[in-house]
Model the fold of this input.
Amino acid sequence: MTTTGSGERVEGYERFFGFKEPPFSLAPNPRFLFESASHAAALAQVAYAIERREPLVVITGEIGIGKTLLCRTVLQRLERKTFVSVINDPMLERDDLLKHILQDFGIISKDRTRLASTTRHDLIHALQEFLASLAPLQAHAVLIVDEAQHLRPDVLEQIRLLSNIDDERGTLLQIILVGQSDLDRLLARPDLRQFQQRVSRRVQLAPLTEYELKQYIEHRLAVARDGGSGAPVEPPMGVTFTADAIQALANLSCGVPRVVNILCDRALEAAHAQWLRTIDAPLIKATADALGMPVPAGTIAESAEPIAAMDRSEEFVPAIFRPGVRAARTGASRGVVLAASLMLTAAVIWFGVRMVSTPAPEPAAEEPTPPPAAGPGGIAGFDGGAATGGG
Done:
């Protein structure tokens, strides 16, 4: 239990729902990995590329799609004879990158005070000697660079040169670049053509489908309930996400796991505060509103409020000219107005030309008007009280 700045106490919901740990934590814990079709295919391709000693593999995906979690899972599944270096700071200079790799491999000390001044040539030579020493052990090394879309071109060139270190079995340092879609645009630069030719495999992670999203939620709930005890994975009975809640989550998150985790975690907090064990669409929407998330069109959000009733004086004014409606119109509506004006002008011109060119018709001879019949009293138009106003 914690206390907010306003003094309000916030209690964890884990005990209420029977969880041993938070099911929707943002930490990239490989135990919670859900192998969707996209993630399972990516894992298989990366594992196959490492087995074949391919030099460069590129993994891309949108923000929050699960790239870091995928890398953590790959690391766990590597053989013990594999040395791994992970670069989480892609803004490093070339020499700092080399030092980081050598520190991860245990070649130089991580204590900066003990680092002697060395040249780039010395750093590369030390790395080459280490990689060559792995051959008798039938071991190899893997370098994983996260957020690689931020790498500078000169650092990418250094990485390309490192991928050239090989023997008869293949490359000695396999490199996996992980980044957002901007990474593809970065590698497409003309000055990185040599780097592109070294890329042996490209893997792209896709969002969860609505069906996978339901399985994803059930999987994480089950793992959190199990707590690592190895029990069969089953949906817990402590909480239920309704079908409309799954639909709302799919609409709001677009299948991005990180957004799903945030929404589900806050929805569980709200359900716990109300002693609810069912998560439905209104609760998901309220959670999204509290987080300030925009609700896409066509989701569970209510339709827009109708425009307020206008003055009766505007009743016969065309809608496009009313102030309240005109502000909501787009450029397409202006095109409609212009087209209508041109059509009206053309009609006036055509009518004027026709009036000028067509001779006026001869006036018809007026027929004589028969005299009115006399009423009973002999006075025209008087019928003994039946006339208008009579009586």
User: Anything to note?
Assistant: The CA atoms of residues 119 and 361 lie 106 Å apart. The chain has a mean pLDDT of 77. Residues 37-204 form a domain with the Rossmann fold fold (CATH 3.40.50.300).
